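Design request, tokens follow.
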């Protein structure tokens, strides 16, 4: 278990270092997640110990949002000053996410229905 957690955190560190040194506009943990995904894709499967550690982290995900919530509460006055741009960004990104998700789901549903029709014809 410790080696699996070490691997996950090492990928996060590698992502953080990569984004910092290359000046990429991507958060370090996201780049680390892509590195971990690439490693697992090359391996072809998710080892049981990495899966167990990831499941444990996901079960306790709410606890990982506590520091962010504290930060929001500590800087509530700053959020109040920029309420309009923050609100526009939140609403716009939510609407865009819903629209993209709907478009992808519609395309996948059509593709899936086309494949089922082709299979039944055989």
């Amino acid at each position: 278990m410790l080696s699996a957690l070490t691997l996950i955190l090492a990928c996060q560190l590698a992502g953080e270092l990569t984004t910092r040194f290359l000046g990429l506009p991507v958060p370090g943990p996201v780049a680390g997640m892509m590195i971990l995904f690439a490693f697992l894709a090359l391996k072809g499967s998710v080892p049981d110990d990495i899966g167990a550690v990831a499941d444990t982290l996901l079960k306790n995900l709410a606890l990982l949002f506590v520091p962010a919530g504290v930060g929001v509460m500590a800087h509530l006055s700053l959020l109040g000053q920029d309420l309009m741009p923050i609100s526009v960004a939140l609403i716009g990104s939510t609407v865009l996410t819903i629209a993209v998700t709907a478009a992808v789901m519609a395309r996948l549903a059509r593709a899936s229905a086309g494949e089922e029709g082709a299979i039944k014809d055989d």
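Comment from the thread starter after seeing the answer: thanks! The chain has two domains: 1-63, 78-122.
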